[in-house]
Design a protein that fits this description.
Layout (H helix, E strand, L loop, with lengths): L1 H21 L5 H4 L4 H14 L16 H13 L1 H30 L3 H12 L2 H6 L6 H20 L3 H17 L4 H18 L5 H30 L8 H16 L4 H18 L16 H13 L3 H17 L3 H8 L4 H9 L4 H11 L2 H30 L4 H18 L5 H4 L3 H15 L10
Helix pairs in contact: 3-4, 4-5, 5-6, 5-8, 6-22, 8-9, 8-20, 9-10, 9-11, 10-11, 10-20, 12-13, 12-14, 12-15, 13-14, 16-19, 19-22
């Protein structure tokens, strides 16, 4: 039975991905992948020059190395153009593996084989995750490692041991080496694990749980240390990535667009003027105004942007966060499908993003203006997101009702809320990909609970 269902899943999965690939426009994997050159350039430079560098042979500090190291293998073997299909194949394998791991995670807690296969299907055929696997973006690899880390976190709750603590720490550290945002997991997961322990055990064992949480933290730090050391050797500064200031600037742009109702140009001009004033007051090198992602300017840019963000009125933050998190949870990835398949309408989305923000009215106007093929994709993908969010909310409710699941729920909700905090005002379907397995976990819990399936209390 296990092999037959997995075989059916695999056959359908292969067919769906072949069809997607056959109907994609030429070069879409690279062209339509967000920040694809950020990952491709270091991979190509390693092959051609033997150095991990960015564009124009500049020192690569705006990201972390692991995804580029994955890309360089097929590029080295097949060449860039032929490697694109191989990269899609590799990432589809990663997605399918994530689905299988999600089934194992659910079965750690629930004695429901059907539920296990259901979450596997929802993960591998999730429209958002499926189309992302066809693009040069680090989310698919990040999702797999996050799911592995989650699996060992649950093992650690059920069976506290040095081995499980080390594995959680290893994959927390590796997350930071795939995307700089993974640093937050390395810093905060030990706290979530400790909180999960305290939710299920007596306070007399607190020393043991502090030990395992501390071991997780130390392991993750050791995994990240080589990249910190490399950056220190090259720059005399100790940091993971020099992209934080630029990323905060993007956050501020979106905050102004939504909060103040400005267009993109107005927001950028305002921020640039405030940044210039900050640099002049603090005697910062004026060249940093144009070197937004350079390691020598990152700290100054970060301080300037944070100061501006903090001074914005509370109502702007509330409005921007509400809209951002709505996009994060309910957008379905339709734009990626449209771009990948070459369906018309991309220029309308670009204009929508750059023009003056008009909230819900702007969204309605956009929907009315787009062509039918894209509209159908938009409706299908958004419907999937909305329906799974509804059942997911039911699932969270059922999990809260049963105290046996609280330790696991602390970790699951902790990761979801951490992701919300990481992306703040920049919510979009792409950034939801890493937490899709968790959201599908909640969805399956909701479906099982709605049908009256009795949960099996996990053994500790």
């Amino acid at each position: 039975m296990i092999y037959s269902i997995n075989t059916i899943f695999l056959i359908i999965f292969i067919i769906v991905n072949i069809v997607l690939r056959l109907f994609s426009i030429e070069g879409a994997t690279f062209i339509e992948g967000a920040d694809s050159s950020q990952y491709i350039n270091p991979a190509i430079n390693i092959i051609n020059h033997g150095s991990f560098s960015g564009s124009n042979d500049s020192l690569f500090t705006i990201g972390t190395p692991l995804y580029s190291m994955l890309l360089l293998i097929p590029i080295k073997i097949f060449g860039f153009n032929s490697a694109l299909s191989v990269i899609v194949l590799i990432q589809c394998v990663l997605l399918f593996t994530t689905g299988m791991l999600s089934r194992l995670i659910l079965c750690q807690i629930f004695e429901s084989r059907k539920g296990g296969y259901l979450i596997q299907g929802l993960v591998i055929f999730n429209p958002n995750s499926l189309i992302t696997a066809h693009l040069i973006q680090s989310e698919t690899l990040f999702t797999l490692f996050l799911t592995i880390m989650l699996f060992y976190s649950f093992c650690l709750i059920k069976n506290p041991s040095v081995r499980n603590s080390i594995f959680v720490g290893i994959f927390c550290g590796l997350l930071a080496l795939i995307r700089p945002a993974g640093l937050y997991f390395a810093l905060i997961m030990p706290i979530f694990i400790f909180a999960a322990y305290m939710a299920q055990s007596s306070k007399s064992e607190i020393k043991k749980y502090v030990k395992f949480s501390f071991l997780t933290a130390i392991t993750s730090i050791l995994i990240m240390t080589p990249w910190y050391a490399r950056n220190y050797i090259e720059t005399d500064k100790f940091f993971l990535s020099s992209n934080s200031g630029y990323y905060l600037r993007d956050q501020y742009i979106q905050l102004l667009k939504i909060g103040r109702g400005w267009n993109e140009k107005e927001s950028i001009d305002y921020i640039d003027n405030k940044t210039r004033d900050y640099y002049e007051r603090n005697k910062i090198d004026p060249s940093c105004l144009t070197k937004l992602r350079h390691w020598s300017c990152n700290d100054a840019l970060s301080r300037a942007i944070v100061g501006g963000i903090i001074n914005e009125p509370f109502r702007y933050h509330a409005h921007a966060l509400l809209e951002s998190w709505s996009y994060l949870y309910f957008s379905g990835g339709a734009s990626n499908f449209r771009n990948y398949l070459g369906i018309s309408g991309k220029n309308k989305i670009v204009s929508f993003q750059k023009d003056k923000h008009d909230g819900f009215n702007g969204i309605i106007s956009l929907i009315r203006s787009i062509d039918y093929p894209y509209l159908y994709i938009l409706l299908l993908t958004t419907s999937f997101s909305v329906i799974t969010r509804i059942y997911g909310a039911i699932g969270v409710y059922y999990l809260i009702k049963n105290r046996n699941y609280w330790p696991y729920l602390i970790i699951l909700l902790g990761i979801v809320m951490l992701s919300m905090g990481m992306y703040l005002y920049l919510g979009q379907s792409r950034f939801r990909v890493p937490i899709e397995p968790i959201l599908m976990f909640f969805t399956v819990a909701g479906l099982l609970g709605k049908k009256g399936v009795k949960y099996s209390a996990p053994t500790n």
